[in-house]
């Protein structure tokens, strides 16, 4: 991989009209060996980025001690050891340009599918990955990369994710890993925050999928209102060659209009037979979902083994993307049939089928509406018990939305912790409870998440579906700024069902 000098990075920022001041002190020819904004990752030869409202001068001092040769910042710092600096107008605008240059624009050597929307991004990403991986296996290619809210695989790193879309520096590094590993395809979730703050600037998606839109991520630290959130989501099309759009989504006309900047748009629908990808005759066949897909090129039956009738929409979206990428139908079918997404619609059952538990990342109004509706359709003679909470310090409207939807559809609710951050769990639960009470649904507040799941499953009577929502397979809860290890929802559910089976053997 080609390495660049400090002078070349300075010239890059200057040409982009981002550079407002620089000091080289004779280091113009020094080669940048690494790029990061994390002081703990700095090594010899690092160009260090001073990023974030919470950035402290001591982070820069640590970076210098570890081997930083220069820093990029919006302001000048007085440091113990004087080093070169590049001052920029806007650090968020500078980061994608710096990251692209340092990593030699790896996106140009990859076929990348970006997935946006309020609900279904991670499931669609894993659906797409399964299709691509089946195609790669058949044609001698490498397993595809994925960057999702669940986990990351880039050919070098396979780990649990912490952000839906990484910051530009980390994103381009992951793509570099993929290229260096011989990977040719990548799937990535594209969040509204990533689009709003330019994390995917200086790159192009081959396909941008827009699944749906509903109010979410409205808070002082995210989006001030729905219009800002929606407008941020629509920015994806400016970064995409082709578009795939849900014709059944709210505000579909506006979405399709925004997609006109792309070379080609494919629409999908379960309601409009004129859509480019039309899903129909959707029904359950045991634990499988069977449906037909009609396009200009084929009319075929598909099957999903991942629960949830609403997942047909996600399947149609990736079928549209696969068509644009000229992936043959057999790989679409085989990939979708075997596809799984950790923490999404994970189904567990007692031996006598009296207890059904669904662990899902559902965390906003649209995902709640889809999940409850699908559960009622698939388990019409079961009671529904819901266990959930809401994150602290963000997405404040979720507390109202989730409380109302759950209160309207559940028979019993247990409110509990879900990444409370710097808020008190009890306070968050009480805010949700106001809206649950409006729907006259009984509820309990149990602050410990594992205890809440156990209590819900112990106290239920008769045939019951338990919807355990929000955390999926995650093995931590965020308290303050720390991720505190805990048992995953899936593990807690399995333990409860094993105990139930022992008692009812």
Ends distance: 62 Å
Task: Report the C-alpha radius of gyration, rounded.
Answer: 24 Å
Total number of β-strand segments? 24
The coarse silhouette is: globular
Number of domains: 3
**Can you count the helices?**
15
Strand fraction band?
15-25%
**Biggest sheet, in brief?**
11 strands, mixed
Full CATH superfamily name of the largest domain: Mur-like, catalytic domain
CATH architecture of the largest domain: 3-Layer(aba) Sandwich
Please state how the strands of the largest beta sheet are arranged side by side: 9-8-7-10-6-11-12-13-14-15-16
Average pLDDT over all residues: 93
Helix/strand/pairing category: alpha/beta
Q: Any idea of the CATH class of the largest domain?
A: Alpha Beta
Helix-residue proportion = 25-40%
Low-confidence parts: none
CATH fold type of the largest domain: UDP-N-acetylmuramoyl-L-alanine:D-glutamate ligase
Task: Tell me what the structure shows.
With 505 residues, the protein is α/β, with parallel strands linked by helices. The chain has 3 domains: 97 residues, MurE/MurF, N-terminal domain (Udp-n-acetylmuramoylalanyl-d-glutamate--2,6- Diaminopimelate Ligase, Chain: A, domain 1); 233 residues, UDP-N-acetylmuramoyl-L-alanine:D-glutamate ligase, CATH 3.40.1190; 158 residues, Mur ligase, C-terminal domain (Protein-Tyrosine Phosphatase, Chain A, Alpha-Beta Complex), CATH 3.90.190. It is built from 15 helices and 24 strands. The chain has an 11-stranded mixed sheet with strand order 9-8-7-10-6-11-12-13-14-15-16, with helices on both faces. Helix 12 links the parallel strand 19 and strand 20. Helix 3 packs parallel to helix 5. The longest helix is centred in the N-terminal third of the chain and has 19 residues. The chain is globular and about 75 Å long. The N and C termini lie far apart (62 Å).
